[in-house]
């Protein structure tokens, strides 16, 4: 008899871990934006000579909380990979989960380096280490997103037109929210809190676009009623293009370049491009939903 409760399916566990990784991303951005990354006297894993600092909202606590959240998330990621190897899962989810665990030490090492300036690694708090920390985190989040989307429990159903429409909707909603919070659009002050929420919205959109690519690919393979091969392929390409442009806006959201007027224009173009591509995918699905029923089934262009 299994000790695992019936409600705890693999997909739910993987989705929870992906959500924890998303929140860790936002907490990390907030920690860096407030300057709290250097608050623990450049120590790691200790914080100001303490294992647990004073539990009040101060820079030491923010950095310590970020580390604790990262540790919990790391163990959850290892659990995802272990489940894929112990369960009856295909090569896709198993490979993605294993890769996430394989590069986890890289993320931990880079994270440690970024907070040890004047400590273990003098000069560690640099643009290069921040960029590496951000990019590796995004790779891990993407891999976990793929595990969540691919890792259906045995006997579970695959994608559907409804799930494809939902994925595009999540992507568009996240993109619109991230546009409001983006530093390229002067609606709000780009404060540490706004930066954290910008990445929550952006990563939500990233997951929605990733799901769109995956479900559109399933439409190409197995067929969704009312969606032609050409439509599915175009939706997939639009989502992939939107995702690439979104990654550019996520990178420009940090101080990885001197944010001049030129880079603001680049950011605006990338932001507009990602919205246009996602809106194009939504329009194609909407045309299918409100059509007259003459749309050819999958397999016919």
UniProtKB/TrEMBL annotation:
GO CC, alphabetical: membrane
Question: Where would you find the membrane-spanning parts of this chain?
Answer: 12-33, 68-86, 98-125, 131-151, 163-184, 196-217, 238-262, 268-285
GO BP annotations, alphabetical order: heme A biosynthetic process
Q: Which UniProt keywords apply?
A: Cell membrane, Disulfide bond, Heme biosynthesis, Iron, Membrane, Metal-binding, Oxidoreductase, Transmembrane, Transmembrane helix
The annotated topology with respect to the bilayer is: Multi-pass membrane protein
Q: In which pathway does it act?
A: Porphyrin-containing compound metabolism
Which protein is depicted?
Cytochrome c oxidase assembly protein subunit 15
List the source organism: Halorubrum vacuolatum
């Amino acid at each position: 008899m299994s000790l695992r409760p019936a409600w705890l399916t693999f997909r739910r566990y993987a989705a929870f871990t992906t959500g924890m990784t998303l929140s860790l991303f936002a907490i990390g951005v907030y920690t860096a934006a407030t300057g709290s990354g250097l608050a623990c006297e450049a120590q790691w894993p200790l914080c100001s000579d303490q294992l647990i600092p004073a539990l009040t909202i101060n820079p030491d606590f923010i950095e310590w909380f970020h580390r604790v959240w990262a540790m919990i998330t790391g163990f959850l990621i290892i659990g995802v990979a272990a489940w894929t190897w112990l369960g009856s899962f295909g090569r896709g989810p198993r490979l993605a989960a294993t890769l996430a665990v394989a590069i986890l030490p890289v993320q931990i090492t880079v994270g440690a380096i970024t907070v040890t300036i004047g400590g273990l690694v003098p000069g560690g708090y640099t643009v290069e280490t921040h960029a590496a920390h951000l990019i590796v985190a995004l790779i891990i989040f993407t891999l976990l997103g793929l595990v969540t989307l691919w890792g259906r429990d045995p006997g579970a159903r695959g994608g559907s037109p409804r799930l494809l429409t939902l994925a595009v909707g999540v992507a568009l909603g996240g993109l619109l929210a991230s546009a409001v919070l983006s530093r390229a659009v002067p609606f709000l002050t780009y404060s540490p809190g706004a930066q954290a929420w910008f990445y929550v919205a952006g990563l939500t959109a990233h997951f929605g676009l990733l799901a769109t690519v995956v479900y559109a690919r399933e439409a190409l393979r197995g067929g969704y009623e009312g969606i032609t091969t050409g439509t599915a392929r175009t939706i997939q390409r639009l989502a992939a293009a939107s995702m690439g442009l979104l990654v550019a806006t996520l990178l420009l959201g940090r101080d990885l370049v001197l944010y001049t007027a030129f880079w603001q224009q680049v950011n605006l173009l990338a932001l507009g491009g990602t919205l246009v591509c996602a809106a194009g995918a939504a329009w194609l699905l909407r045309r299918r939903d409100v059509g007259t029923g003459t749309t050819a089934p999958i397999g016919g262009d």
